[in-house]
Amino acid sequence: MKLSVILLLCFSISWASVYAQDDLKKFEFDGYLFGLGYRVFDKNIKPADNFQIYNRLNFYYNFSAYSRLTLQFRNTIYGGKSYQDNQSIFAKMMDTDPRALDLSWNAFENSNLLLNINVDRLNYRYSKEKFEFTVGRQRINWGQTLVWNPNDIFNASSFFDFDYVERPGSDAVRVVYYSTNTTHWDLAAKVDSAGRITAALKYGFNKKNYDIQLLGGVANKDLVAGIGWAGNLWKLGFKGEASVFSPVWDTLDKTVVSLTAALDYSFQNGLYVLVQVLYAGQDELSTASNPFSGQFTQLSARNLSFTEWNIISQASYGFSPLFNASFAVGYYPEYDALILFPNLSYSVRKNLDINVVHQNLSFLNKSKSGGLSAMNILYFGLKYYF
Known about the structure:
The protein contains three helices and 19 strands. It has helices at 2-18, 81-85, 87-94, and strands spanning 27-42, 45-62, 67-80, 104-109, 113-128, 131-138, 170-178, 184-191, 197-207, 210-219, 222-233, 236-247, 256-266, 272-280, 309-318, 323-332, 337-349, 352-363, 375-385.
């Protein structure tokens, strides 16, 4: 049923766009094909080769200059040794949609391959002058910083999930009112598959050249209050976020404070450097089991990391308009763990990119690993835009 509905929507929009080529503002379509191969290295077993093939399709229908319907989804093929060894668990995880509407399903599955279809955008938006209204599956990003976002109570995501640049969406209603050029009110509410509600109001304003936001509301089982800021400290960019989560329906949880601050600087030669620190007040029911949590499951702003203190530094540089490189180093004192995260990107032509990425998690003192396993993964990606 879900597949037939999506195919019908795609066919209808595609068919209509054929007869509307002279009106490019009416119908829009784009997407990409992304092949990602990766090898998992482990000194105790043979290297495991795996692959994922993403086909993203984005459809837009503009009723007017103020009104738009959006449908976006990705078809993903999973295969390789890691999938074969964990087929049933992996297939069940991919077939589960944490949002109110179940729009993720496995269209094909056998012992070697899994084809999953996931609709992450399906919404209607009306925007005119100072008012914006959106209903349906959408991305609500209230974060200010790059790596961790305690203010992102609707769509928290993992910094290490590099192959999902669009990030997940929520089934939500959102109203934004821009009272002045520097002041706005943002009211949003979502519901997940378990019927839990997240609803909050954000007020954004500018004070002494700082963009500041205040937010408050309900996030699942918690009352939440937060603040975020973005400005300059001398010549450095200074951004940060803080949120307090206080349980009101579950006495097993405790009040959690999540706080992050970041300094960054762009040199005249194009080199960009960043340092960000996170304090994540932990509770006993934390769902973040390692730094890569969120690559296959959606994170919570309440539990952004597997350890209390976290620090990441990153440098990125464009050697040319076609070749970019970044290198991130993360340190987690509680486990004496170190992450290396280099990322190379080269544009072969206007619509074809090559990526080489390495993610390495190691423990400088194995006695502090807490049962977590070291990870060493090398990725090679080829992305074609259309």
